[in-house]
Amino acid sequence: MREAEVHAAEPRDRLLLALDLLPELTGRALTLTALSGGITNRNFQVEAEGTSDRWVIRMPGNDTHLLGIDRDAEHAATVAAATVGVGPVVIGYIRPEGYLVTRFIVGVPIAERAVHEPATLRRIADSLRRVHDGPGIPGLFAPLEVVERYRTLAIERGVPVPPEYERAAVLARRIEPILLAAPTPPRPCHNDLLNANFIDDGDRVRIIDWEYAGMGDPLFDLGNLSANHELTADEDASLLEAYAGALDERQLARLTIMRVVSDFREAMWGVLQQGVSTLDIDFVGYAGSRFDRLLAMAATARFDRAMDEAARS
Known about the structure:
Elements: H1 3-8, H2 11-19, E1 30-35, E2 42-48, E3 54-59, H3 71-83, E4 90-94, E5 99-103, E6 108-109, H4 118-132, H5 143-156, H6 164-181, E7 187-189, E8 198-200, E9 205-207, E10 214-216, H7 218-229, H8 233-244, H9 249-273, H10 283-298, H11 301-311
Antiparallel strand pairs: 1-2, 2-3, 3-5, 4-5, 6-8, 7-10, 8-9
């Protein structure tokens, strides 16, 4: 099939035409089953007649480039993660639609409560270390720059920026020089570490959904994981020790600061989505909860100590 035919077809038919472009699936009778869980894209499990093998195809959501998503970079990041045994194996990437086709990972999801278990934290840390030590990927990820880009785009689309933004921006102006004074060499990072993106294949924690990946600060990944699952201070210490092999107080301080940075990015993502997404999701509530969480963390003695420790770096 020609790519022009793929572009002209109806959504579900487009997927089938796209899959027919791939040598592994050409000419086979295919069944698509929608997968739940995504709030930006649509994902489908693909089954083929005559085999028990399964695949996944991703259909990007509307205007996702406005969220800083580069589908070419996502493809490269997924391939890189697969080379270290963490990401799904890529079998195809269809342009210009940006459909990514990967092998289905056979395993079980990791529940949010399980992330708090020491054994699970160690396994997640191992997978992240493999990615961070792996091959470089396209693009840079600077979360505070992302925040400002989201704000500008939200205003352009008539989305009101909540008043909590100003309080968070004041924090960001305190945080940024501390981070820049002791920069971490950029490493390939995932930047969207939700338990919904983890699959336990029985051997390793596999990580999917690489659309926000880029070269960045590994401690942002750890802080993002921590904030998304509201890890305790002791759990943060255990995570860092499992990741680095030893507990470094300055790295722990940076991880704590990155929790606030991560939630600022998440909050403004929710603000921009109000002017981008067509999905029936409460993005106002999503943004508000992240602003509340980051401001609560920033009001703690734990955060003050982290800022003092990081400033001594």
